[in-house]
Amino acid sequence: MPRRMSADYPPHPAPPVLPPPPLGASLPAERWPSPDELLAIHRSMLRARLVEERIVELYRQNRITGGCYSGIGNEATAVGIAFPMHNEDVLVPTHRDMGAHLVRGHSALEVFRQYFKRASSQTGGKDSGLHLGREGSNIVGMISHLAHMLPVAVGVALAERQKGNPAFVVTTVGDGASSLGDFHESLNFAAVQKLPVLFVIENNQYAYSTPITLQYACERLSDRAKGYGMFGEDVDGTDVVLVVDAARRARERGMRGEGPTLLNAVTMRMRGHSEHDDFKYVPKALFEAWSAYDPLLRLEKRLVEQHLATTADLERWREALGIELDRAVDEAWAEPEPAGAEAARDVYRRWDESWTPPTGAERWGSSS
Amino acid sequence: MSETTYIEAIRLAMIEEMERDQSVFLIGEDIGHFGGAFKATQGLLERFGKERVVDTPIAEALIMGVSVGAAIRGLRPVAEMQFADFVTCGFSQLVENAGTFHYRLKVSVPMVVRLPSGGGVGGGPYHSRNPEAWFCHAPGLKVVAPATAADAHGLLKSAIRDPDPVVFLEQKWLYRREKGVLQSGDDALVPLGKARVAREGRHLTLVTYANGVPMAVEAADRLRAQGIEIEVIDLRSLAPWDHQTVLASVEKTGRLLVLSEATRTGSFASEVAAHVAELGFESLDAPILRVTAPDAPTPSEKNLEAYFRPNTEKLVDAVSVLMRY
């Protein structure tokens, strides 16, 4: 059999180079965030961007090891879906939602501790990345099986309803995880039970190296909502004003008892899947087209146009935040590593030491 | 005192715990109006309402994931798999999600998954599974496998009150064959991690659990007439498991036979054997033997299944081998 030539395997068809929707798509005046809200949204997006820029830099310096997944380019979606949430609402995020973590109460210091795997981090070095969410907080700590968090989010909504709490649940997946069975099972059941959940697809064009053209054949992922009997819509995931509005309407819908919403936030992953990935498989033209829609720069342009900030203000805020974050990096870095013996602890909430079978190692003279 | 069947003991345990604690609720397929494939939840929808007896679509991963989500928010879900075999569809949620929350974030996951397990009912490859070893190999999960009505009742109550995810293996074969007297109130509770000595003996230790227990007790009773006294240990819990009771018994008898209805390689019987080989070697007068199913899926036809499953005759054979030492 003749060997196949590489020409038989053309590169994957890239996603279409989208002309993103026009800036400031028409939104009725009464649905615009107030000036104070816009400034607060900007603070969160800027913080998310700068925290992640530092994480990328620390990875390059080998001070962060393992997977390093950034949400650069996703700030408008991550901040936009979290911003309208109330105190009692619950966030079930995934790995590119730095902005949502920061809006919902995690600090930059907690994030750096977690990335450095310090004893003081929420997971004590047992897990890494954005797998944050302590008991009693309204943020649920994700696992790496991203779609698995969707049934968990549905369970959270079911539990809060059963307890009589009027809480809304916001959960996210990427275009990649939207292909798993958990997605179908969760949306279907949430609709049957009319649970107040916002399912967000952060549709950033690629699941690792696989473009959306190889992932689904429907025109818009939000079209799936109709099949489940729920409301669904697309939103420009780089325009935070539109994302906030869509998330607000989803919350209103959920709290009125009208069930879940599917939001397909169209955005672009501006870095590799993880920081080890040089993402050469992404065509340059696609990057260039999306670069014009940097979510943070779009918002900053708007702040200046609306006279809510000057370019000098923006520069000053960025500098002040940078100093604060550098301090947090230093503080987290200086904290102690966990002791090795922690590795086998806290597997269970209730465990009697007599239950642990001895290894017998002591008989062989081992010191372990 | 009137006797209660194994399945009724399970139903009563759920009713009692739901009455005791508002946060306990049931979730699964066909568990509401229909009362469950084996009627373990019959009458509970009428008694507790649809918020606490939640019928789901056929979606095992969803059932597991929703249980995890509800448990981390302080409820105590008791999920039913229609047959233990279908837990494979929800396996990842249980092993990866439920089993890791406390280790990672010290978040308690107080959920129970009930698995109607085991063979002997002509169920074939997809309705006869004994999946316990998979879950014993998944740190973060607790695994229990009662053999009597009182233990089914008491262990399910303890499992529901436990702050960790518990895989509860219940035996279809025992559902209506096994009967016993139940205790009431807290006297009924059976602690996790504590074995039961089902028969005392001094010549050989026979360790087993679940469907293996009635086979072992029958073999012990039969051999007693021949002057062979077998100590039958019903483990009841597999994770944690009562290694101390097993080792103390082997110290007394010098012989160990382990019986599991599951397939052989990597079975829980292998774990017990390995542990005693490591820590009880000096007590042993004979090799450790295992009686298990062969490494094959469970066949459906009765001759095939009879060949496949352990039984009293196979145990008596293995005992006679060990008694030659």
Write the layout of secondary structure elements.
The complex is a heterodimer of chains A (368) and B (325).
Chain A: H1 35-60, H2 75-82, E1 90-92, H3 98-103, H4 108-116, H5 149-162, E2 169-174, H6 181-192, E3 197-203, E4 206-207, E5 210-211, H7 224-228, E6 231-236, H8 240-255, E7 261-266, H9 284-291, H10 295-305, H11 311-334
Parallel strand pairs in A: 1-2, 2-3, 3-7, 6-7
Antiparallel strand pairs in A: 4-5
Helix pairs in contact in A: 1-2, 1-10, 1-11, 2-8, 4-11, 5-6
Chain B: E1 4-5, H1 6-20, E2 24-28, H2 44-48, E3 53-55, H3 60-72, E4 76-80, H4 91-98, H5 101-105, E5 112-117, H6 132-136, E6 142-144, H7 149-161, E7 166-171, E8 179-180, E9 196-199, E10 204-208, H8 212-224, E11 230-234, E12 237-239, H9 243-253, E13 256-263, H10 268-279, E14 289-293, H11 302-308, H12 312-323
Parallel strand pairs in B: 2-3, 2-4, 4-5, 5-7, 6-7, 10-11, 10-13, 13-14
Antiparallel strand pairs in B: 1-8, 6-12, 9-11
Helix pairs in contact in B: 1-7, 3-4, 8-12, 9-10
